[in-house]
Amino acid sequence: MDLTDSIVDATKEIFSTMLMIEVSPEPPVTERIAPFQSSVSGMIGIAGAYKGMIVIHAPEEVAINLTSTFLGMDVAKVDDDVRDAMGELANMLGGSIKQVLSPGRQGRQSLHPLRRLW
Description:
Layout: H1 3-19, E1 39-48, E2 52-59, H2 60-71, H3 80-101, E3 109-113
């Protein structure tokens, strides 16, 4: 299984189990996107033998709805709960990818939450 398949499978699993939402992959973005506007991002850095970032971007309305489902409460605007929920989704995805990158050797990769900038 390649890394793309692992990311897709982990994303589907997390959204299914944690949010009760079925998601399906779209083709990868191949062109640079102008800076996201009116969106919320969750980011986790990966360090060790492999280096990179896991980033989840969502329009504000989608991030608010995901947070409401995730926390089981009404959320009306982007606040710390929304930013934390998006960060936690990125963290869960990062944990799944960490296992793929270092099977049986969990100490070889580490995850680092990235400071929120907005």
